[in-house]
């Protein structure tokens, strides 16, 4: 709550307007993944590890680049009152197939700690709307993530 008020005050005091904030696509994806990991108010080490692996493989990054990306995403996320700038960046820069990959990563983060929390599920429903994707795409991503989790 305080984070959101601070961001709104900064915007009103000459900082760029929320509509002008355009995070890089990699930062946007990372911020969404971090938000999902924090949705249940328990950022488990398994979730952090899963995010790092997903970013490393999806964006072809080295471990130190992943740490930098996660730090940048956290800083930008802390400065924003909500996920809108991040989901907007994904919506504008990603094809439907790439959005499906992002959603699959989201589900992998959700399943990393072995349980689906109601807050996580609620956030995914919001992401469906914010990313302007069909519900079937979300379900397909969930099934793919679940299947890959069972193989591990």
Report the sheet with the most strands, covering strand number, pairing sense and barrel closure. Answer: none
Q: Tell me the CATH topology.
A: TerB-like
Level-1 CATH class name: Mainly Alpha
Q: What's the overall average pLDDT, rounded?
A: 87
Overall tally of structural domains: 1
- Computed over alpha carbons, the radius of gyration is 15 Å
Helix content: over 70%
Silhouette: globular
- Order of SSEs: HHHHHHHH
Report on this structure.
The protein is mainly alpha-helical. It has one domain (22-151): TerB-like (Orthogonal Bundle). The chain is built from eight helices and no strands. Helix 2 crosses helix 5 and helix 2 (25-38) runs parallel beside helix 6 (96-112). The protein is globular. Residues 11-16 have low confidence and may be disordered.
What does this entry show, briefly?
With 152 residues, the protein is an all-alpha fold. Helix content is 75%, strand content 0%.
What attributes does this structure have?
152 residues, mainly alpha, TerB-like, 8 helices
